[in-house]
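In response to the reviewer comment on reproducibility (Comment 2.3), we provide here a single inverse folding case reported in full, input and output, so that an independent group could reproduce the run without further information from us. The structure tokens appear first.
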């Protein structure tokens, strides 16, 4: 199925898979505009991620259909976490749909799950190019993913508000943010909003240590402490029992709620009043930041160029200020976890 079309017109299909995030519509719009304006391509959008490919559920896309979607959150195509490799006949049906519709290139906008499926399908001969998105910012080989900047901005605005009420009441405010396997949102929002403690999945936590730290802070006369905790944070073995989480088709845990446990335990340990706020899906909703709109637009344009160059099995990525191509194999080989130097050099100085 792989063929280099160069400047020749193609039939391009675009889909959004996995959890949604602000900036997906900006990416769809860029794919459609670049394809139709620069290459006279015909573009369709599969609905609800890989589910639409398996079920042959697609809509035509053109510049008119994409008018006004740039600042809109969510995705006009819908999304799902359906994995063709976990649906009986899913791969065969997906390939049959693409052949029947004469699709020359699929632009898959997704996180780790969607991009891993893209890699496997590319290995099976499907012409796929990936665009990385997820508020978690955990896709390997790219500095940023679409949605992360907006999620951090929303979290910072919320934590700034928690600060003033925490100060009035001399309380500890625990703020739970998303971040299944990584603490990018927690660390960035904690640093930007002046948190006292940030708890991330990369480093198992010990609440006795956190409590001691908070108690010392409040003894010194501090009157408010913000504790940011990523939903995927795990206690040090033997320190705290957590209820088991549900698992989805991508073998992901359905998380949310660690903040309440942390707040309850910290209140017991410190005798300070603790309250919890779980930001959850608020971080995934609403209008994208200017940074995410620009990133999504640049990724969309670059993905269409990659498709015309026959660079299938690749993902577009941000490296410094440049958009580059990396293999889907490298992008999905492992998750991009927090950089230890960032935790050690920056966080240890400013989180206190
Ligand atoms: O997309 C990533 C993410 O937002 C994670 O941070 C979170 O654990 C998960 O999605 C939640 O997924 P769902 O919307 O399916 O509950």
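Designed residues, in position order:
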């Amino acid at each position: 199925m792989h063929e280099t079309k160069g400047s020749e017109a193609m039939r391009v299909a675009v889909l959004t898979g996995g959890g949604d995030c602000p900036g997906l519509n900006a990416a769809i719009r860029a794919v459609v505009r670049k394809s139709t304006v620069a290459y006279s391509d015909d573009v369709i959008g599969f609905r609800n991620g890989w589910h639409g490919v398996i079920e042959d559920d697609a809509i035509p896309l053109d510049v008119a259909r994409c008018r006004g979607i740039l600042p809109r959150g969510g995705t006009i195509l819908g999304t799902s976490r359906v994995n063709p490799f976990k649906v009986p006949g899913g791969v065969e049906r997906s390939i049959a749909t693409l052949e029947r519709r004469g699709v020359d290139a699929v632009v898959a906008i997704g996180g780790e799950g969607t991009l891993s499926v893209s890699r496997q399908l590319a290995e099976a001969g499907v012409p796929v190019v990936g665009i990385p998105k997820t508020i978690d910012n955990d896709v390997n080989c790219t500095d940023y993913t679409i949605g992360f900047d907006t999620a951090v901005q929303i979290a910072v605005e919320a934590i700034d508000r928690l600060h003033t009420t925490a100060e009035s009441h001399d309380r500890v405010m625990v703020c739970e943010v998303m971040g299944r396997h990584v603490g990018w949102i927690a660390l960035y929002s904690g640093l930007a909003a002046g948190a006292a403690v940030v708890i991330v999945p990369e480093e198992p936590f010990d609440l006795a240590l956190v409590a001691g730290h908070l108690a010392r802070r409040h003894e010194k006369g501090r009157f408010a402490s913000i504790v940011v905790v990523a939903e995927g944070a795990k206690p040090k073995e033997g320190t705290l029992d957590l209820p088991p989480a549900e698992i989805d088709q991508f073998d992901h845990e359905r998380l949310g709620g660690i903040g309440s446990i942390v707040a309850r335990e910290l209140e017991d340990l410190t005798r300070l009043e603790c309250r919890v706020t779980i930001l959850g899906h608020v971080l995934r909703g609403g209008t994208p930041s200017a940074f995410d709109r620009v990133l999504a637009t640049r990724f969309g344009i670059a993905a269409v160029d990659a498709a015309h160059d026959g660079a299938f099995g690749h993902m577009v990525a941000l490296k410094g200020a440049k958009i580059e191509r990396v293999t889907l194999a490298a992008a999905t080989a492992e998750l991009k976890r927090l950089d230890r130097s960032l935790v050690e050099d920056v966080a240890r100085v400013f989180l206190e």
